[in-house]
Design goal:
With about 270 residues, the chain is mostly helical. The chain has ten helices and no strands. Helix 3 packs parallel to helix 6. The longest helix has about 35 residues.
């Protein structure tokens, strides 16, 4: 549990870092605000268009009684909107990171610079970096979707589905959220997706300690907007821990023996 607490500490330190550097906090807010406006527009459009979508998809129900037809299509309309809201929640971070690629990369570099030591640079162009981020984000979202389907099925198991499964769901969300956030700093260090996942699995509790509290907070996109800059800063601090070279033990000096006299005594012992 010590690693879990350390991961939570990096989340807090990241928020404190951007709190001390207000300029970077302001710049880090812009991508989240842009994404939130885009998602809000899409959800409003889905809300008004879901009725027509359901009517188009269920022509076989046109001859049903009005009460049954209304209940059936009303349920499907609500299901479509809830599914859209679910997609918005699980993709919000990935899309925000894509929209804010130059902002968050600069923020991550500034954290490395402020903390001292090497400031890694990938050497790749902007569009190449954006392509890699988009490709990796899609792979991560597919993994999240597979876990989501499995956990949804397990949710129908009595007791376990209402207790254990939600906890596992937030753990899965927290792990992959941490992967997406640390990708900003790790991609600059030339670490690809497979290596990133291996690195984070090697310190699973540290990763969960960082990602799970953020996953709980990011359920509300408006909160996610304000936490995103600090989350990127905290992820960079976490990466510095994960990639730090282990300290080599310093060689101990050999004990100096006193010069031996003729009969095996030291000169100090032989002196009367």
């Amino acid at each position: 549990m010590r690693d879990f607490g350390a991961g939570f500490g990096y989340m807090v330190k990241g928020q404190q870092w951007v709190g001390r550097h207000g300029r970077w906090f302001g710049l880090g807010l812009l991508p989240g605000l842009i994404t939130m406006v885009l998602y809000a527009g899409a959800l409003v459009g889905l809300w008004y268009g879901s009725d027509d979508m359901v009517d188009w998809a269920t022509p076989f129900a046109d001859d049903w009684s009005s009460a049954l037809l209304g209940a059936f299509r009303g349920f499907l309309t609500a299901l479509v909107f809830v599914f859209g809201l679910f997609l918005a929640v699980i993709t919000f971070t990935a899309v925000t990171l894509l929209v804010g690629q130059p902002f968050y990369e600069s923020l991550s570099e500034q954290v490395d610079r402020a903390e001292g030591g090497e400031v890694p640079e990938s050497g790749r162009g902007f569009w190449h970096e954006l392509w890699i981020s988009a490709r990796d984000s899609l792979k991560v979202l597919l993994r999240v979707a597979l876990y989501g389907v499995l956990l949804f099925a397990l949710g129908f198991i009595p007791v376990i589905g209402q207790t254990v499964v939600p906890v596992l769901g937030f753990c899965v969300s927290g792990f992959f959220l941490a992967e997406e956030l640390t990708a900003v700093a790790l991609q600059r260090r030339g670490v690809d997706l497979r290596e990133r996942l291996t690195l984070l699995r090697g310190r699973r509790m540290l990763t969960l300690g960082f990602g799970v509290p953020l996953a709980l907070a990011f359920v509300v996109p408006f909160v996610a907007v304000f936490l995103m800059p600090g989350a990127v800063a905290g992820a960079t601090l976490l990466v510095r821990d994960l990639t730090a070279a282990p300290e080599e033990p310093q060689p101990q000096p050999e004990p100096q023996l006193a010069p031996q006299g003729r009969y095996g005594f030291s000169k100090d012992q032989a002196r009367p």
